[in-house]
Amino acid sequence: MKTIVLFFLLSLCCFLNSCKEKKQAEPTLEKPALVNDSIEPAPITEIEKPVRNEVQHYFLIAGCFEYKELADKLCEKLQKEGFDSKIIPYYENLYLVSYTGYATSKEAQEALNTLKHESGKENTWIYHAKN
């Protein structure tokens, strides 16, 4: 009987030892070696303009349309000419098409004075968006 109990205990110990999680070595990630290339960056020839994050409240208006399709056509035309044109919803179903926008009234007035001297742009006016 002692041998059976001893054999049972020995089997139980072996069973419990085999159930334990064996720690496996974690794979180590090798860092890639830094390559020192002798390539130098090209010199910057053009001075980058600072980005202006000002909110635009004053717009030079090129036209006002009842139908959005017509406003879209004029907006695309002005953008091809190099203007930062936008469509501004005005009143119910009216759409204003702007040449560009400005943060201050003074900037907008100066631009208007310059733009009004161009042929076909004499009727340009300033719209103050009260956002």
Automatic annotation (TrEMBL):
SUPFAM superfamilies: Sporulation related repeat (SSF110997). Residues 52-128 form the SPOR domain. One of its GO terms (molecular function) is peptidoglycan binding. This is SPOR domain-containing protein. It comes from Odoribacter laneus YIT 12061.
